[in-house]
Amino acid sequence: MRTYWYISLNNKYPLPMKGQYKRVVMSVQMKAKYSVVEMTREATPVEIDHCKLVYCGYGLWKDDHIQKNIKKYV
Asked: For residues 39 and 54, what is the distance between their CA atoms, to the nearest angstrom?
């Protein structure tokens, strides 16, 4: 399944909104200074500002462009 990948610079990630039944955040890989967040949809501007998310790409984890963008911010 193709998903949206983000880097969270403050280790926060979007929580489910009220009335939302689908899971938005598929996985979070927590590190000391950042987190890698996998989402099923694009993040809203409010989520991007609150969680300090940086967009890394759309696709699978093993895709080269996603790995390259994650390494750029880590």
From this structure: 12
